[in-house]
Fold:
Amino acid sequence: MRIVLAGLATSHPYTDARTLTRHGELVVWEPDPERLRRFTDEHPAAKVAGSLAEALATGPDGVVLTVPNPQVPEALARVLETGVACFVNKPAAASRAQLDALDRLAIHERVLSGSVLRFAPAFAGTRIDPGEVLAVRATVRHDVGLWADGYNAWQDTPGEGGGTMVTMGVHGVELLVALLGPDVRLVGAAGAKRHYQGLRSEDTGVMALRWGSGVTGTVEILGVSEGESYAVTVHRRDGSDTIVIESGDDPLKGLGYEGTIDAFLSMVRGAPSPVPWEQTRAILEVLVAAREVA
Structure:
């Protein structure tokens, strides 16, 4: 099995590679020499390609795509031409122009994108009866202090990577859509800088959502946090249940990275994406709308 890691724009493909290297040959393309060196130091057996076209010409069985958001539509179009399974590290779009560009692509059933938390053991397999639900809430705790010092500035730029509202908010929206489905719309959003004044975006945010069924939802984003954790609370008439997702002793498993790669490898072997693009498109619409409002 040959897997192409197309781009190393965030920390995620480095994490993905630690699981993928157990399953096949890795081919990597990344234009930034420092990022590429960091990767090859950890994976010296990986084949290095000089361009995306060269990487795709190696005949991969699957592609993990992680490039800055403005580059996703064009890069994904090149991957789609190969017909192979593709995992696009989150989020696939962070602005209206990027989402419009994705909408013009013929995205097939073996394309997966979204938050790895969907596949976390604490959450995967969770089912609820929407008829019993009054409201839902997702709380995202993930510190964004690195951005305040200029690291990966494109992620913190609202018109490029979407800032905290999008890049961290995707985790909360993903979990709620996984529970209640894609018939959802944004009804309000706000963000603020409470601690990291050097940011281009915000370090805290909130979104209000409403499903077609009438269920309301809230996504809280706390980008100032000493620890990383995620929670989903489901409110019913007789009480509330909360699911907490934490890294535990094995972050790759606890946060859903291994589960995501398992899903991707199933796609490589021919299975459709376990997350229909309809859901991913709904999540991206909420995130883009929140960025526009905030």
Summary: Residues 118 and 124 are 6 Å apart (CA to CA).
